[in-house]
Design brief:
Order of helices and strands: EEEEEEEEEEE
Distance between the termini: 37 Å
Structural class: mainly beta
Radius of gyration: 13 Å
Shape: globular
Strand content: over 45%
C-alpha cells in the first residue's frame, strides 16, 4: 500500500488545519493508521492513530483535546483535524500503517509503510 499525505500549510497560532492520508495500491483494511511528526532537530514523535476496522483512536498527550483522527472508508482516507494550533505543532507530519498491537502504536519502528510527509508551520 502507498500513502499520500496532504493538507499541510502555514497558519497562525490558534488556527486549524486538516491533514489527509490517502491509500493507493491497496487499502487500510486490517491496518492501524498512525500520524507522526518530526520537528527540526527532534526525533519523530507519535501524534495519533486509528484502527481502520473498529475505529478506536489514540492520541499523544500533547494533542489530546485539540486533534481528532477520523476515517472515510469510502475514500480510503484517514484525516487528522488539528485545531487550536500552536507554534510547537510545527513539524513535518507523516502518516503510516502498522499491524502492531495497541500498546505499541506509539513506536514508529512498528510501522511498515510511510507517506512522504506534509509540512505544518504555525507562526506565533
Amino acid at each position: 500500500v502507498q500513502l499520500q499525505a496532504s493538507g499541510g500549510g502555514l497558519v497562525q497560532a490558534g488556527a486549524s488545519l486538516r491533514l489527509s492520508c490517502a491509500a493507493s495500491g491497496g487499502t487500510f483494511t486490517n491496518y492501524r493508521v498512525g500520524w507522526f511528526r518530526q520537528a527540526p532537530g527532534k526525533e519523530r514523535e507519535f501524534v495519533s492513530a486509528i484502527t481502520w476496522g473498529g475505529g478506536s483512536t489514540r492520541y499523544a498527550d500533547s494533542v489530546k483535546g485539540r486533534f481528532t483522527i477520523s476515517k472515510d472508508t469510502a475514500l480510503n482516507t484517514v484525516y487528522l483535524q488539528m485545531n487550536t494550533l500552536k507554534p510547537d505543532d510545527t513539524a513535518v507530519y507523516y502518516c503510516a500503517v502498522t499491524r502492531t498491537i495497541w500498546s505499541a502504536l506509539h513506536d514508529s519502528q512498528h510501522y511498515t509503510h510511510w507517506g512522504q510527509g506534509t509540512q505544518v508551520t504555525v507562526s506565533s
